[in-house]
Design a protein that fits this description.
alpha+beta; single chain; binds flavin-adenine dinucleotide; 12 strands; 327 residues
């Protein structure tokens, strides 16, 4: 591991000011939450910062606050704290279910929600020091000619990573918003707009600019009559990332969908919303036939690589299962 200096930030303002200062001085710096993901990348020398700014020492960023319309989750709240929070279990069951699917209990005890959403891809080419791939400073996405069994089938090219987070699809399905702090102040945007496709930026997974950090996620309570479901397929029962996952939230009455969200994980470089499927279901009875059609619409335009054609059928079937369980 390259030698670096750790700085325990005392406030959001100090963290963003330091990030900006180091950027101006052309010295590399990154922020760390629980460190469960980024330290691995540092050990492998995939990232080699001069400075690491520890956000866990900032007071007040690890709380879950209830307000009338939803929950405000501080970015430094651990996944375990979210999973166990009574209001998350009562009102946002799909989030609790998605969190419980992420990594292992040990990692959920250390890993934060901010870090989970900002985690780097778990692509084996990206994580190996032997490949200077497109996500790093290289020009090539090795999955195109290499082993592509876990790579993207939707929204990809020129990079074929998949977004690794389990919480992100559930949060997008719940219409969550994200608060970002930078040197010029704070902004709040829909979480859906936080993630970026490789056609726009093949080096980063989100719109955070240098010097910006995530401070909070707001999750509105679902409308009355809504039910959500998170379903994940992984290769083994121990910790593993999603091969395909789906988060659905359906507001229905008498089995007829009024408002639907379908968001896929593990198939695209961002949590992949399926607007055609959502619109198709509007006003329709959720049954075998309509959910099958929704699955087909969601996968329209899928472009698998040579080893991951199987993801198409898997995603269709997961969508159908999740929708049928959401009414
Ligand atoms: C073995 C293993 C298996 C895993 N399996 C899964 C899985 O199945 N599903 C899943 O969802 N996740 C999985 N993960 C990822 C795990 O959930 C993350 O490691 C964890 O959530 C990251 O949180 P952290 O606070 O430790 O992040 P860190 O390691 O501290 O940071 C991760 C990244 O986010 C950035 N970051 C952190 N906090 C902020 C912030 N507030 N603002 C801006 N940027 C920030 C860091 O700079 C870094 O780039 C796995 C990880 C490991 C190591």
């Amino acid at each position: 591991m390259k030698t670096f200096e750790n700085i325990d930030a005392k406030s959001v303002n100090q963290a963003v000011t330091l990030l900006r200062k180091f950027q101006q001085e052309k010295r590399s710096a990154l922020v760390v939450g629980g460190g469960s993901e980024i330290l691995q990348l540092m050990k492998e020398r995939v990232v080699t910062p001069d400075y690491v700014i520890n956000l866990k020492t900032i007071p007040g960023l690890n709380t879950i606050k209830e307000d009338r319309s939803g929950l405000r989750i501080g970015a430094l709240t651990t996944l375990a704290e979210i999973e166990e929070h009574p209001m998350v279990r009562e009102k946002l069951l799909i989030l609790s279910a998605a969190v419980a699917e992420a990594a292992s209990p040990q990692i959920r005890n250390a890993g934060t929600i901010g870090g989970n959403i900002c985690q780097r891809p778990f692509c084996w080419y990206f994580r190996s020091a032997n490949f200077n791939c497109l996500r790093k400073t290289g020009q090539v996405c090795y999955s195109v000619t290499g082993d592509s069994r876990y790579h993207a089938i939707l929204g990809a090219g020129p990079s074929y990573i998949v977004h690794p987070s389990d919480t992100a699809p559930a949060l997008v399905a719940l219409d969550a918003q994200i608060k970002i702090a930078g040197a010029t102040g704070e902004k709040i945007i829909p979480l859906e707009k936080f993630f970026v496709l490789p056609q726009v930026d093949s080096k980063h997974e989100n719109i955070l600019k240098p010097g910006e950090i995530v401070t909070e996620i707001f999750v509105p309570y679902p409308k009355s009559g809504s039910k959500g479901f998170y379903h994940k397929v992984r290769e083994r029962l121990a910790w593993d990332h999603a091969i395909v996952s789906v988060a659905t939230v359906v507001q229905s009455s008498g089995g007829v969908a009024r408002d639907t969200r379908v968001v896929l994980g593990g198939v695209a470089p961002i949590p992949w919303r399926a607007p055609k499927a959502e619109q198709f279901l509007h006003g329709k009875k959720i049954d075998e036939e309509t959910t099958q059609k929704a699955g087909e619409l969601a996968l329209e335009g899928a472009k698998p690589l040579k080893d991951n054609v199987y993801k198409i059928a898997m995603a269709k079937s997961l969508i159908q299962r999740a929708l049928l369980a959401s009414v």
